């Protein structure tokens, strides 16, 4: 339809679609909503209704008359002839009717025609009843071609003629060995099923080759054809090449048509129905699906099949009927003969039958207590059913049942008598005459014991020899107090281990309950244990239940921690009940993808604190008490906990255990459950999770709340809060309404770092002095002589210096190289970028360090001892922006693997890195370009994080400095193609961000390049200069001032520093921490004032200066050295006289030398009578140049 609307004194024709025609209606109604839905713009004001096209072109203005926006076509103007609409009323074809009515079926239209050949009023031309193919209907209504149910081709006649193949997986639960796929190979002629289990899909080709070889070697069968779907494992180049080489025909299904591979799909359905049935009936854990699958495949090959006229595949292949009399119900309880190490111990242990092993001709037995499967020979089946019953006398006549052991080897706890204990509080006593509530099993907790009784079935797995008692090292590993050294192979393990260590008090934490109760402060530790159990009971953390027979019982133990403040002073006794999560079974007690919990990156923490200091916002620290207990077990998660030995819970009956409702510390899923609870709580109070650091949450504040941005960054249960003064109390109140907070006030100690603020300068400083002091004591480096650099620039470390000889290996055997290096790692990534290069270099030799590497490691500790009071200062005025520095050591290494480093600052370093690259570089420009790429990645992440939390605070582009002009030019275009064409394309990633204006790469000379300190060992002055520019400053305290000495009461007495040999050997025993360099003697002149420390990075002092031994009548005090004015004037006069004397001597020597030269010149002139000299050249009488640089003269 076409309607006319007034447009600047004339009519504007507007075409309308999908119009409803009513012959008796006398006016045309136009819907405004239809205009808007099609993208037209409608504006209503005093002039009327203005209509705009989707491209914003003005169409018409309709005036308002009597409350309606109407167009009157009866106006006398000839330009607006009375034409309301035009509509064609011709007859239409069947195809047009089909189109008009939403592609309704042709048959429906023909059956609905009336006597006038109309379809609901629409006149259809009888002469145009063709039914052409409608492509739109085909595209929108096409359906799958039905699969024929009858077989098309003939069945194979012989074994190996046609094999049907398919892959099943991945399994939601991995079987032992990491198996998660099954590879189906089904012979069409005999129905024989071969179905190996795989770790990954790409192993399918290897298994097929093995099966092909077995068929040929054992049966002389040549496989003729394979039939499979179009999975990538069957279409790989290796698979295709093998089939072509062996002459095997391949037949593939059409995509998305599994029905064409029906035989293999039907076998999957049959086999895994059997697997699920076996697991459900036996009650065994799901991770044993691999054992059930093997058993199901064996049953399939030895059971009748309908397509084989009810013969078994075994009979069809071999021609004989199978004998299955040895089979037992899968999961049956059995008794297995064992070689006991005690002549009075039991000779059999109970296990579960999970099938036969035909490779070893034995029986496969599952041990529920240790979750392993072994192959055994001497087995007695207790019953033919799954549920165990009483064994017959005939079965047990040659076997002894294991006796019930008591807990005599568990230390008993003596109750304290400080007052009555609440009825719901646990009793810390287990009388020796009282039997344990639970029968001890192999899953019970024996961690609190220092001995393991011979009859205690700690490991009842069958062995071929007598069992050996575990060594002290093994027992330490079992109870969590020992380490293997592998804990520090990765940086993540370094950080997690040392963050915990940084927040604890070294040397004061008991290893187990027995040690805690044997200490003088045992009363405090017992109170801590009572407090922990009471808190868990109040949180409804568990319920008392009788465990199922096949339940995985997890042990628990107490972990003791004496918490300290930023100065290392003890503040709180904490005993935490921890579940031994390493005994959890994947798929039974937890899922692998449900254990990750993010924590705030240290770069994010430093950045947020720096911006808070610049904006002068409040920074508050807090932690959540027993945070993990807020995470609850999800439906279907059944975790059963055995109470620790020595704890008697009120109401716990014999045989009962704790079914956890809350996620206890130590469980694999506990961290994630707590994070999910915290995330949901912060969302409820208006905080948004950052997309670039999932442990950072922010909220935009309204003017009523003080404006700005509030930020929360979390590390497990420790949180830092940033907000303005007005909103901070509201934020703390909102958190307190949801969690039990332990508010720490203004931020001062977080993650083992001491934090101080200078509100006037708007800076914030991080220090790890207490942590450094503790690791110095921990590894006995607290008396090492200090040095001025962490690495000697003149010493090159290499693998040739690793321990090779037996003498070197014996020397390094007891050196805690990896542990000490791991302790340095946290200081390196926390506040000390000046040791990052040294730590990363030493980490390369952690596998087999030598004496030279150990000496270099001691040097880092010596450097830290002299600089332990250094702080990392961030922030400043509001002009501070995000700035980057990147550098590489170029081609200085023999292996051509460069060190790439970068530093990003906001007033001070917030992010830094120093890493050895995996690739070999061919030029310095290439090495610097790769370093620039890594710095660009960090710059982009930092910008996105900061711009998301603080929009408009940081502007593009981000300036990144480099000291290589070639790398800068290469980052802009490909002008050096010939020399850089070999560089991998991923390193050209930086060009994109340079072109779009995100990054600005700028040149900076090497002597001002801050990242240079992270690529090589620098001399002391240069290192201090660059470290000071990064933000490392001294933490001025009275104890750190080198010009303060100990002075007796009488000022005339001489002062000196006692040598190390005068110290008591009993108080300071010799150890491996002595440093090889001889300490130079320190001299103090009585008339010269000692220099004070500069503002940034002084030369480290060589240990505290100690007072001399004095008599009782003398008092010791700290005083600066007194300076006498008279002596000072005498010194100045003496120095002036010395200068005059030296000047006179120099003048005398110059006079004598001048006379001597004149004399020698006269002698030379007299000896050359035949020549004359001009300048420095000489010529003979023939004007020939005799030599020299002079000119001739006549």
Automatic annotation (TrEMBL):
PROSITE patterns: INTEGRASE (PS50994). CDD domains: RNase_HI_RT_Ty1. It comes from the Eukaryota. Residues 1098-1113 have a biased composition (Low complexity). Residues 142-321 form the Integrase catalytic domain. Keywords: Membrane, RNA-binding, Transmembrane, Transmembrane helix. The keyword Cytoplasm does not apply. Residues 1052-1065 have a biased composition (Polar residues). One of its GO terms (biological process) is DNA integration. One of its GO terms (cellular component) is nucleus. This is Integrase catalytic domain-containing protein. The lineage of its organism: Eukaryota, Fungi, Dikarya, Basidiomycota, Agaricomycotina.
């Amino acid at each position: 339809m076409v309607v006319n609307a007034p447009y600047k004194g004339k009519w504007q024709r507007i075409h309308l679609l999908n119009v409803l025609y009513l012959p008796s209606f006398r006016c045309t109604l136009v819907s405004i909503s239809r205009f808007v839905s099609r993208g037209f713009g409608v504006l209503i004001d005093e002039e009327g209704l203005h209509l705009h096209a989707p491209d914003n072109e003005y169409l018409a203005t309709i005036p308002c008359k009597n409350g309606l926006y109407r167009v009157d076509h009866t106006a006398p103007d000839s330009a607006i002839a009375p034409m309301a609409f035009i509509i064609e009323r011709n007859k239409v074809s069947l195809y047009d009717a089909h189109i008009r009515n939403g592609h309704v079926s042709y048959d429906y239209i023909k059956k609905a025609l009336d006597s006038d050949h109309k379809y609901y009023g629409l006149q259809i031309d009888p002469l145009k009843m063709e039914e052409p193919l409608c492509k739109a209907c085909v595209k929108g209504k096409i359906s799958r071609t039905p699969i024929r149910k009858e077989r098309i081709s003939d069945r194979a006649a012989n074994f190996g003629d046609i094999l049907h193949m398919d892959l099943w997986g991945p399994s939601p639960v991995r079987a032992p060995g990491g198996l998660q796929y099954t590879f189906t190979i089904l012979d069409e002629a005999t129905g024989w099923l071969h179905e190996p289990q795989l770790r990954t899909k790409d192993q399918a080709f290897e298994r097929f080759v093995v099966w092909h070889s077995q068929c040929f070697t054992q049966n002389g069968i040549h496989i003729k054809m394979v039939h499979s779907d179009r999975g990538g494992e069957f279409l790989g180049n290796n698979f295709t090449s093998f089939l072509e080489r062996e002459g095997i025909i391949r037949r593939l299904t059409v995509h998305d048509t599994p029905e064409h591979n029906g035989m293999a799909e039907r076998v999957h359905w049959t086999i895994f129905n059997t697997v699920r049935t076996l697991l459900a009936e036996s009650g065994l854990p799901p991770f044993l699906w691999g054992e059930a699958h093997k058993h199901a495949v064996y049953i399939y090959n030895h059971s009748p099949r309908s397509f084989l006229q009810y013969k078994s595949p075994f009979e069809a292949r071999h021609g004989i009927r199978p004998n299955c009399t040895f089979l037992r119900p899968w999961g049956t309880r059995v008794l297995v003969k064992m070689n006991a190490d005690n002549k009075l111990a039991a000779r059999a242990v109970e296990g579960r039958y999970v099938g036969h092993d035909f490779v070893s001709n034995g029986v496969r037995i599952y041990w529920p207590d240790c979750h392993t499967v072994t192959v055994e020979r001497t087995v007695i089946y207790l019953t033919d059913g799954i549920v165990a019953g009483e064994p017959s006398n005939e079965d047990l006549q040659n076997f002894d049942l294991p006796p019930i052991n008591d807990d005599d080897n568990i230390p008993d706890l003596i109750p304290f008598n400080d007052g009555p204990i609440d009825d719901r509080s646990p009793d810390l006593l287990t009388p020796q005459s009282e039997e344990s509530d639970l029968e001890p099993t192999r899953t019970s907790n024996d961690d609190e014991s220092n001995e393991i009784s011979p009859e205690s079935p700690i490991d009842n797995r069958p062995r071929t020899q007598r069992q050996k008692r575990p060594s002290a090292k093994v027992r330490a590993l079992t109870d969590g107090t020992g380490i293997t050294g592998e804990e520090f192979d990765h940086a993540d393990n370094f950080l997690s281990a040392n963050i915990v260590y940084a927040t604890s008090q070294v040397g004061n934490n008991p290893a187990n309950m027995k040690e805690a109760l044997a200490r003088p402060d045992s009363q405090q530790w017992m109170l801590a244990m009572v407090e922990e159990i009471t808190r868990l009971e109040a949180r409804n953390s568990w319920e008392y239940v009788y465990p199922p027979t096949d339940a995985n019982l997890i042990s628990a133990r107490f972990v003791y921690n004496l918490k300290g403040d930023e100065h290392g002073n003890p503040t709180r006794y904490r005993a935490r009940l921890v579940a031994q999560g390493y005994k959890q079974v994947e798929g039974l007690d937890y899922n692998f993808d449900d254990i990750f919990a993010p924590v705030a990156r240290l770069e994010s923490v430093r950045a947020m604190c720096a911006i808070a200091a610049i904006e002068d916002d409040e920074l508050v620290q807090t932690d959540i008490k027993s945070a993990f207990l807020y995470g609850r077990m999800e439906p279907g998660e059944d975790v059963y906990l055995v109470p620790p030995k020595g704890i008697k819970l009120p109401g716990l009956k014999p045989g009962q255990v704790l079914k956890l409702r809350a996620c206890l510390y130590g469980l694999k899923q506990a961290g994630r459950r707590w994070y999910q609870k915290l995330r949901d709580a912060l969302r409820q109070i208006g905080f948004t999770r950052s997309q670039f650091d999932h442990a950072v949450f922010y909220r935009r504040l309204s003017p009523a709340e003080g404006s700005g941005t509030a930020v929360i960054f979390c590390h497990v249960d420790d949180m830092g809060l940033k907000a303005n003064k007005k909103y901070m109390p509201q934020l703390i109140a909102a958190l307190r309404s949801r969690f039990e907070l332990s508010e720490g006030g203004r931020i001062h100690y977080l993650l083992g770092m001491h934090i101080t603020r200078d509100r006037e300068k708007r800076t914030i400083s991080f220090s790890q002095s207490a942590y450094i002091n503790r690791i110095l004591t921990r590894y006995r480096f607290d008396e090492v002589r200090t040095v001025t650099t962490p690495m000697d620039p003149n010493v090159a470390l290499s693998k040739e210096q690793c321990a090779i000889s037996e003498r070197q290996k014996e020397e390094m055997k007891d050196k805690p190289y990896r542990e000490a290096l791991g302790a340095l790692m946290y200081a390196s990534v926390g506040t000390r970028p000046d040791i990052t290069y040294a730590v990363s270099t030493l980490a390369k030799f952690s596998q087999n360090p030598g004496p030279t590497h150990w000496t270099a490691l001691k040097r880092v500790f010596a450097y830290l001892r002299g600089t332990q009071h250094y702080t990392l200062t961030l922030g400043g005025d509001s002009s501070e922006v995000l700035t980057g520095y990147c550098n590489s050591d170029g081609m200085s290494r023999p292996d051509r693997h460069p060190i790439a480093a970068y530093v990003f600052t906001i007033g001070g370093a917030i992010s830094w890195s120093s890493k050895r690259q995996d690739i070999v570089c061919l030029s310095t420009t290439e090495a610097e370009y790769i370093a620039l790429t890594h710095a660009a990645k960090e710059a982009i992440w930092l910008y996105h994080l900061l711009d998301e939390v603080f929009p408009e605070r940081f502007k593009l582009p981000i300036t990144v400095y480099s000291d290589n002009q070639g790398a800068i030019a290469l980052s802009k275009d490909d002008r050096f193609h010939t020399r850089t064409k070999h560089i991998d394309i991923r390193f050209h990633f930086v060009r994109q961000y340079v072109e779009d204006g995100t990054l600005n790469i700028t040149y900076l000379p090497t002597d001002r390049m801050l990242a240079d300190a992270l690529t090589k060992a620098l001399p002391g002055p240069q290192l201090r200069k660059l470290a000071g520019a990064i933000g490392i400053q001294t933490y001025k305290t009275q104890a750190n001032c080198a010009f303060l000495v100990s002075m007796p009461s009488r000022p005339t007495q001489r002062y000196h520093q006692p040598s190390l040999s005068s110290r008591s050997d009993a108080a300071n025993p010799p150890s491996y921490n002595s440093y090889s360099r001889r300490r130079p003697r320190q001299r103090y002149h009585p008339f010269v004032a000692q220099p004070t420390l500069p503002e940034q990075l002084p030369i480290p002092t060589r240990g505290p200066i100690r007072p001399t031994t004095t008599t009782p009548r003398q008092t010791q005090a700290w005083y600066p050295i007194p300076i006498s004015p008279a002596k000072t004037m005498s010194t100045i006069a003496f120095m002036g006289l010395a200068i005059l004397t030296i000047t006179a001597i120099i003048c005398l020597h110059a006079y004598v030398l001048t006379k001597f030269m004149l004399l020698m010149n006269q002698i030379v002139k007299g000896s050359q009578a035949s020549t004359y000299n001009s300048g420095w050249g000489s010529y003979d009488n023939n004007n020939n140049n005799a030599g020299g640089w002079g000119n001739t003269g006549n």
